[in-house]
Amino acid sequence: MNSSLLSLAIWVPIVGALPVLALGSERRNQMRWLALAVALAGFAVTLPLYLGFDISQAGMQFVEQAPWITRFNVQYALGVDGISMPFVILNSFITVIVVIAGWEVIEEKQAQYMGAFLIMSGLVNGIFSALDGILFYVFFEASLIPMYLIIGIWGGPNRVYAAIKFFLYTLLGSLLMLIAMIWLFLEAGGSADIFDWYRLPIGMTAQILLFIAFMLSFAVKIPMWPVHTWLPDAHVEAPTGGSVVLAAIALKQGAYGFLRFSLPILPDASHYLAPMVITLSLIAVIYIGFVALVQSDMKKLVAYSSISHMGFVTLGFFIFNPIGMEGALVQMISHGFVAGAMFLCIGIMYDRMHSRQIADYGGVINSMPKFAAFFLLFAMANAGLPATSGFVGEFMVILGAVKFNFWIGFAAAITLILGAAYTLWMYKRVVFGAVANEHVAKLTDIGAREFLFLAVLAACVLAMGLYPLPFTEVMHASVENLLKHVAVSKLP
C-alpha cells in the first residue's frame, strides 16, 4: 500500500514547528493556537494509518521508498506493521496533550518549548516507521536533541546535570548500536535495508556480540536495570511535558528496537541470551518496585514505577509466545496513557504548590475533588486494576510467562502487589485525610483546560481496559509473523 501518510506524520510537526518558532513568545496567544493546530494536524494524518490498516496482513503497509544517500545505497524507506503503527498514533496523540498541558504553565521561551515538542514528535514518528537501518539511527539520535533541550532549559534546579546524564547515557549506548549497524551494512553487501539484514546468515559468536551491542543501546533507552539511573534524575528535573513524553514515548523506542532489530536479525542469540534478559526484567519488576516504595518525591516514585512496568515489557518479548509479546505491546501503549496521566496530575499539583514532596500534601480531596477523582482512576490503572488499561497488558504478560515457566510468571505477578502498594500509599498520603496545611487549603480545583486533557486520557484508560480488542487485533498478525521468524535459526 503506497501513500505519503508516514512522511506527513514525520514532516507536518517538524515543518509546522518553524512558524511556531518564528512567531515567538511575544505573540504568545497566536503562537499557542498555531502550535495546537500543528499538533492536531500531525495527529490527524496518523488516524488513516489505523483506519486503513489491513489487520490480516503481517508485512509492512503504507510503504514509501526514495533514494537518499545514493553513494552508500541508503534509502528513505518508511513503513509500519501492526507492531509499529500504534506507536506512531500514540506519539502524535501525546504531543497534542503536551501542547495543551503547557498552555499556561510555561512562562519563559514558550515558543521554543512548543517547537521542541513538535520537532521531537516528527523525529519519533521517524523512529517507529524507518525501514532503513541508517535512517532509523539518524532519527534515533536526532530525537535526543529536543529532549536534551527540554530538560536542560525548562527543567528544575539540577536540570543541567540531569540533561547531560540523560544525553551521555543514551549516546554511549547508541554508538554501540552504530558499530553493529555498520557491521551488518558491510555483511549485507552495502545495504542498509533492514529486511536484507533479516536474511543474513550470521555465526553464533557474531550474533551474541551484535545482540549485546544492540541490547546496551536499547536497554539504556528503556531503561533496564542496572542502566536505569539516568531516568529518575531526568524525570524529577524535566518540566511536566518533558516527563510525559519521556515516559509515554521515549522509553518505548528501546523496547521497539528489540522487536525491529535484536529478535529478527539475531534469533539464535535472542534465544541463547533470553534467560539473562528475563532475569534483568524480573529484577526491574521486583527490586525497582521496592525502590519505588521508599520514595518521598512523587515524580521519582512514578519514574521508578515506569522502570518496573517496562520490565514487564522486556519479559513479555523474551518468553517467545504470542500472548506474552502482545501483552508487552499492550502494556507499552497503556503505560503511555497511564504514566503520562500520572505525571500530568503531579504537574497540576506542582504548579499550585511548587512541591513534589509527598509530606507537603494531605487532604487534597477537600480542596480539589474533581482532580482527586481523576488522580484515583490513574492511580488504580497504575496499580493494574481490572477494567483499566493497566490490567490488560500485565495480565497477558503474566499469562504468557506462566505458559513459559510457572515460577517466572509467579515472580512477575508480585509486581501487582508492589504496584498497588507504592501507588495507593502515595495516593492515600497526598489526597486523603484532613487538610494538612494552609497551602493545601488554598488549592484550587482543575479548570476547563486541565479537565479536558485529564478526561481524554481517562477515556483512553477506560476504553482500553474495557475493550482492548481494537488495540490487540492490529498487532496479532505481525506478532505471529515475528515469532515464526525468530523460531528459524540464522546460523550459517
Please describe the topology of this protein.
Elements: H1 5-23, H2 28-44, H3 47-51, E1 61-69, E2 74-80, H4 85-101, H5 110-129, H6 133-142, H7 144-154, H8 159-187, H9 194-198, H10 204-221, H11 230-237, H12 240-265, H13 267-293, H14 298-317, H15 322-353, H16 364-367, H17 369-382, H18 389-404, H19 406-431, H20 438-441, H21 448-466, H22 469-486
Antiparallel strand pairs: 1-2
Helix pairs in contact: 1-2, 1-5, 2-4, 2-5, 4-5, 4-12, 4-15, 5-6, 5-7, 5-12, 6-8, 7-8, 8-10, 8-11, 10-12, 10-13, 11-14, 12-14, 12-15, 12-22, 13-14, 13-19, 14-15, 14-18, 14-19, 15-17, 15-18, 15-21, 15-22, 17-19, 17-21, 18-19, 18-21
Can you describe this structure?
Helix 10 packs parallel to helix 13 (267-293). Helices cover 74% and strands 3% of the residues. A hairpin with a 4-residue loop joins strand 1 and strand 2 (74-80). The chain has helices at residues 5-23, 28-44, 47-51, 85-101, 110-129, 133-142, 144-154, 159-187, 194-198, 204-221, 230-237, 240-265, 267-293, 298-317, 322-353, 364-367, 369-382, 389-404, 406-431, 438-441, 448-466, 469-486, and strands at 61-69, 74-80. It has 492 residues and is mostly helical. The protein starts with a helix and ends in a 6-residue tail after the last helix.
- CA-based gyration radius: 22 Å
- The N- to C-terminal Cα distance equals 34 Å
**H and E string:** HHHEEHHHHHHHHHHHHHHHHHHH
Which class do the helix and strand fractions yield? mainly alpha
Number of alpha- plus pi-helical segments? 22
* Strands in their spatial order, largest beta sheet: 1-2
Biggest β-sheet strands, sense, barrel: 2 strands, antiparallel
Mean pLDDT: 86
Which geometry do the CA atoms define? globular
Share of residues in strands: under 5%
Give unreliable regions as ranges.
none
Range of helix content? over 70%
- Report the count of strand segments: 2
